[in-house]
Amino acid sequence: MFALCDCNNFYASCERLFRPELASRPVAVLSNNDGCVIARSSEVKALGVPMGAPYFKEEGRFRHFGVEVFSSNYPLYENISRRVTETLRSMVPDVEIYSIDEAFLHVDTLPPAMADPGGFCREIRERVLRWTGIPVSIGTGSTKTLAKAANRIAKRDPACDGVFVMPDGKGADVHLGSIDIGDVWGVGFRNAPKFRRLGIRTAKDLKYTDEEWLKQRFTIGEARTSRELNGRICFPFAETPKPRKSIRVSRSFGEPVTDVHTLREAVSSFAFSAAETLRGEGSAASKLHLFITTNPFGREPRYANAASFRFDVPTCRNTEITGRALACLERVYSGGYAYKKAGVILTDLVDASNVQRHLYSVERDRREETLMKTIDRLNLELGRGAIFTASMGIEGRRSWGMRRGHVSPRYTTHWDELPAVLPPGEAPKQ
Amino acid sequence: MKLLVDKAKFLKSWNMTERSAGHRSTISVLSGVKCEASDEGVFLKATDLKTSINCVADGVEVSTAGSAIFPVKIIGEFFKKAPGESFTIGVEKGKATVISGNSIYTFSTYPVSEFPKLPSSRNAQPFFRVSCGDLRRFLDEGTFSGSPGEEFPQYLSAGLIQTDEEERVRIVSTDGRRLSMSQGSVTVEGEPDQVLLPLAGLRELQRAISVVETNEEIRVLKDDAQVYFLTENMEFSVRRVESRFPPYEKVLSSDRTSWLTIDRELFIETLERAEVIVRDFSRMVVFMISPGGSLKIQAKAPEVGEAFEEIPGECDGEPLKIAFNVRYLLEGLRALHGSVAHLSFNGPNGQMTLSRPREDSFMYILMPITLPEEETTEETQ
Q1: Which is deepest, A26, A151, A257, B84, by most CB within 10 Å?
Q2: CA geometry: angle at B208 spanning B205 and B211, to 5°?
Q3: Over the stretch A112-136, which tens digit does the pLDDT of each residue have?
Q4: Are residues A162 and A174 in the same domain?
Q5: What's the gap in Å between the CA of B375 and the closest CA on chain A?
Q6: A198 and A97, same structural domain?
Q7: Three-class secondary structure of residue A360 per DSSP
Q8: Mean pLDDT over residues B300-306, rounded?
Q9: Which structural domain, as residue segments, surrounds residue A82?
Q10: Does residue B132 fall inside a structural domain?
Q11: How far is B319 from chain A (nearest CA, A)?
């Protein structure tokens, strides 16, 4: 049996965590550069604000209804997500992290879960809320797709109180009949219209559709989803996440960038961050791609270009990755444009401990490996940005940064921004 | 132009020529084969602008001289499917009529004036002479390490042909991770020299000479732009690559710490089995070599499984644990002509050299995959 634990309005819940006064007030979280609404508390949902709505269109409405708006604060969300996962692991040893706010739990081997799945899930829910302050919903089913459907019901039906156990066999039909085909895991909004045209409108319809018929009209993926709705496992539990195929670090700039010096700083930062992620996963990259682009919607002259570089020997070192990214930038940069976005993408990733050696490459300095490890350790212990390359420029003077007008403090990851507990009447030290 | 064609004989020459046509070219006339008929005989010509072929057509009797360009895709297919053992081809006003028994087919041809002038060896300098069988071996063993798909640097998609004063020719290719070199005695003509040719062109040459008799001599000539390979009935030219080949002599080191002699077929079979486990993962196989013992091979992939094999071989030198890309290794072993393979190693981070025992006519140098330091220092027994 699978259980899917999904944090309710995760980003909004994280923002409320250290601001208890927001508990019953509407909260919205914006995407990078304060562009679109990417998380809404239930109060904001009730106002009819759609997911992904552009902020500039909703700003007036938000002000009118007193919606508390936040810029996205990923260091906080990642930290809280880790705490939620650790709490889940304290009760269920096998946890598959599916996304920052969702995890599959493998509960087959746990007698209390098998004896009373609903009661066990309620216990998990209570512990996560008590230990981390994050409300979660849990749905269980004999397959991942059924668990996902159960979670949807747990979240939407107040009578479920955040937990729903999907019955097996025909018992599930009444519930699956209430789930629109577009909301079934693995179908998505792109395929949903085609399903509807063919008379498949709900999860239950898909469950009883002939597999061969599905394979002919769709792909094996849709046939597997149908199998899963029938209780046959096609997507097994995978505790070890599959290694990534690529790492992309790109940003839209808060203000257009017109000079190559600033662009170099931005590209260096992206390369540094990508290399850091690469080392964190124990991987090395064989290929680097760099792109720069002006605003495709603006009235200014447009320009976009990209360049690639293949490393003779796959690497995860800042020095090589930043150096090559900057060399690629020199190849594609053209003056006289206002650049809106740039990015570094590392592809053809391999395991860093098993790298194919090259006949003509110079033997790498082993000390550089120690240097990378030291940089990573210092940035982990002292906070991100404690050590950085000079080509990234000085923090606080970087003009290319994202627009983040409503960002909350890094409550859990930065010494200077930790929340302080003070006796009544005492003012915090400045 | 009017020709009486003996189908079986003609198709041999046709098949050899049509491969060199520029099937993927945007210039449509390149996807045709030019047929020139005169009192001197019938010649079939094709080019993709990188390679060209000019070949004497067998089994053709000329009734009326002339020339025409036949589109390979349509007329070529009909030649193969034509009923009976012979047929006639007549070309008039750009239309070709093929009559075979009771079948009469008419096709459009390409305008003759649009066909490019093919390079000619008339003013080329002699380079060397070699038997077809030897050239086939040099190409088989020497060109597989390159990477034909790579655009840059150019040497990756090219093979080096080099002659020396000791009347030898070497064919070398590399993609940076491995290098293959085949060499042997030839009759060197003129000063020793070297040329760089595209691998795609060399592959075409391999196909073109695959139907030539093993003992037939091939004359190789060169000029500033092309290298020509001449047999009695065919002239095949390949456009040279203007690039520098890396200093490959530097990696032909004789340093070794461990070595192994092993049955080639058995080794290939074992590696093919191990490849099943790792082909969708790292493609890495680990060798454990113990002096006086056998060769142990290990391959593992998470969520797939693990392989362990032990095969007999003559191992000597220092104990060694080393990892390689199994696909690269298999390519080297498959290219090696012979029943026994000799492998020498230069420590866990140094190159591996594959050759025939006590011979230097073929060398395949492959760099290993790094293993974590703690793994290489583990006991190999």
Answers
A1: A151
A2: 140
A3: 777 888 999 999 999 999 999 999 9
A4: no
A5: 10
A6: no
A7: coil
A8: 86
A9: 1-166+406-430
A10: yes
A11: 20
Q: Does residue B283 fall inside a structural domain?
A: yes
* pTM greater than 0.90 (yes/no): no
Q: Which long-range contacts (CB under 8 A, 24 or more apart) does A207-215 make?
A: A207/A172, A207/A173, A207/A176
Residue A26 lies in a domain: yes
**Distances from the Cα of A90 to the Cα of A85, A128, A281, angstroms:** 9, 10, 24
C-alpha triplet B193, B198, B202: angle, nearest 5°: 85
| A252 and A363 part of one domain | yes
Shared-domain flag, residues A265 and A365: yes
- A357 contact B CB<8A: yes
The pLDDT value recorded for residue B376 is 60
- Does residue A400 lie within any of the structural domains? no
Report CA A336 to chain centroid distance, whole Å.
Answer: 35
**A283 — phi, psi (to 5°)?**
-115, 170
Q: Is ipTM strictly over 0.90?
A: no
Q: Which residue has the tokens 């320009």?
A: A303
Contact list in A for residue B286 (CB cut-off 8 A) is none
Q: Is the N-terminal amide bond of A419 cis, ω within 30° of 0?
A: no
Q: What is the pLDDT of residues B29-42, one digit of tens each?
A: 999 999 999 988 99
Last residue of a domain, one of A185, A213, A242: A242
Rounded distance, CA B326 to CA B270, Å?
Answer: 11
B177 touches chain A (CB under 8 A): yes
Residue B358 lies inside a defined structural domain of this protein: yes
Nearest-by-Cβ selection for B179 from A351, A359, A361:
A359
So what's the pLDDT on residue B151?
59
The chain-wide mean pLDDT, for chain B, equals: 91
Q: What is the number of domains present in chain B? A: 3
Q: How far apart are CA B177 and CA A312, in angstroms?
A: 8
Ordered alpha helix ranges (H), A299-424: 318-332, 366-382
Residue closest to B350 by CA, chosen among B337, B363, B365, B362: B365
Q: Are residues A339 and A417 in the same domain?
A: no
Query: What is the rounded distance in angstroms from the CA atom of residue A58 to the CA atom of residue A54?
Result: 7
A5 token code pair: 């634990």
Q: Are residues A40 and A148 in the same domain?
A: yes
pLDDT confidence bin for B326, thresholds 50/70/90:
very high
Interface test with B, best of A311, A354, A362 (most B CBs within 10 A): A354
